[in-house]
Amino acid sequence: MFSDSVIMLVVLAVVVIILFVKTAVVVPQRSEYVVERLGKYHNTMGAGFHILIPFLDKITYRRSLKEEVMDIPSQTCITRDNVAVGIDGVLYIQVIDAKLSAYGIENYYVAASQLAQTSLRSAIGKIDLDKTFEERETINRQVIEAVDEAAQNWGIKVLRYEIKDIAPPASVMEAMERQMKAEREKRAEIATSEGDRQARINRAEGMRQEAISISEGEKQKRINEAEGRSLEIELLAKATAQGLQAVAAALASDGGVTAANLRVAEKYLTEFGNLAKAGNTMILPANLADIAGIVGTAMTVMQDVGVKKAG
Question: Largest alpha-carbon pair distance within the chain?
């Protein structure tokens, strides 16, 4: 009898432990569990320790509230200019309502992936091939808006969408490479011509500045030479005037005429001697013997000048 009681207690304890294990639930952080009671939604359990009613409550769905990454398979899209390109991407989503994600749609992963693909095809069909590489941000934004609008009824938030790769056909890639090469060569030619043009302008400007500097220097040189000649003539005229004044004063003094006669005669004879040394041919004055008459004539002129100055 005692043995049967012990066995019953052990069995009861095992059953209690099993029921406790089955009904006691610990929900991890950033997770939510959807509980159904008798096949009907009962509540959503957040992070922590919870006890379920045995045989009545059942955890039907487990949802993570962390951000999830979904690979969007590559698909062929037709651009507005009828070029087929292969595009794949990455979709970032997050469950914000576990109940809606459980009962709003059968499989939100498949739904989000399919909607992202259809939205991408629609966005690509509105632009040309050349723009697909430039308008990535616009395309990403259009996909996010389309998927997020539908995912609100699923308890899902679409955070980001990124295009991973755009693969045009090989023939299109070759044409694009040729176009890019031609564009680079064109820019190189333009840059070379612009450099040559600027070099010509610089050389012309340098020659212009050089010509201006030379002309300015020549102008200043002529001005300086003219000023020098003017000063020379002025000084010579002053010296000549002073010399004539001195001669006139000497003639007016006592013995001045006699000294002048002697000086003129001496100068005459000296110059006549030099003329004889200069060449074999010589023109002689008719009154060569009348040196006194020549000197007298010169002195008469000097006396007239002295008289006029004194008067």
Answer: 198
